[in-house]
Design a protein that fits this description.
With about 230 residues, the protein is of the alpha+beta class. It folds into 2 domains: about 30-85, no CATH class; about 125-230, Immunoglobulin-like (Sandwich). It has 4 helices and 9 strands. The chain has helices spanning about 1-30, 40-50, 60-65, 70-120, and strands spanning about 125-130, 145-150, 150-160, 165-175, 185-190, 190, 195-205, 210-220, 225-230. Helix 2 (about 40-50) crosses helix 4 (about 70-120). The protein is rod-shaped and about 110 Å long. About 15% of the residues are buried. The chain binds zinc ion. Zinc ion binds near residues 63 and 67.
Length: about 230
């Protein structure tokens, strides 16, 4: 029922549009005779906007509907209104996109900012392994007592002598087999005073105090070296 009503309504719309187009064609071709003088621009603009202030009995409507000059002007005004409305829609869409983009960027910035706020509070610690054994499988000898606070740490590790340059994975683990890692960080070597050293960001904020192992693993040589470590 509703469908057929809609269909007939659509058909009516099409029919009315067709009549309007035929009428418009005749007016523009000068086949109609307008009565009275041309109304001013303000009236035509109101008419194009379908202002409710214009009474249907207004004789200027009759004139505009049969005068080629006024009809041309009306069509131009309608086109102008339509493109202005489109510009408003586009501007609104652009604004909405910009707001979403800004919200996204601000969100990302806030998310990235959170850990870096911690970074500014990172505790600098140095572990000197220069004299620690580097032979694979060899237990490190008398290593200086290494202890780190349970905090965000900028950890500088002076690697044992003869260590290869490159990238290292630094980990703090529960045992000497790499199990129970509580923190990890990647770092590349840099030479300082003839010694290879790496600086890694290690987050021990959630680590419980106790005995751990600090391990260094070279990117190509998968063997890890473990050194006893205490977290306070
Ligand atoms: Zn006219």
């Amino acid at each position: 029922m509703r469908l057929s009503w809609r269909r007939s309504s659509n058909a009516e719309d099409r029919f009315e549009k067709w009549i309007a187009q035929q009428h418009q064609r005749r007016v523009l071709a000068g086949e109609t005779t307008p009565s009275g003088p041309c109304p001013d621009n303000a009236f035509l603009r109101d008419l194009a906007r379908r202002s409710p202030q214009i009474a249907l009995s207004d004789p200027r409507i009759d004139h505009a509907a049969s005068c080629p000059t006024c009809m041309n002007r009306l069509l131009a005004l309608r086109e102008d209104l339509r493109s202005r409305r489109q510009r408003v829609v586009v501007a609104a869409a652009v604004t909405a996109c910009a707001i979403i983009a800004i919200a996204f960027v601000v969100g990302r910035y806030a998310m990235e900012r959170t850990p870096s706020v911690g970074n500014t509070l990172a505790v600098s610690q140095t572990v000197n392994l220069w004299d620690a054994g580097t032979v694979r499988g060899e237990q490190p000898g008398q290593l200086q007592a290494v202890s780190l606070p349970a905090a965000l740490i900028k950890l500088t590790i002076v690697l044992p002598r003869h260590s290869a340059p490159g990238q290292y994975l630094v980990a703090i683990t529960r045992d000497q087999n790499g199990n129970g890692a509580v923190a990890e960080g990647l770092a590349s070597t840099g030479v300082n005073g003839g010694q290879q050293q790496i600086v890694a960001d290690i987050d021990l904020r959630n680590a419980r105090a106790g005995q751990y192992f600090l391990s260094t693993t070279h990117e190509q040589d998968q063997a890890a070296y473990y050194y006893p470590l205490q977290i306070k």
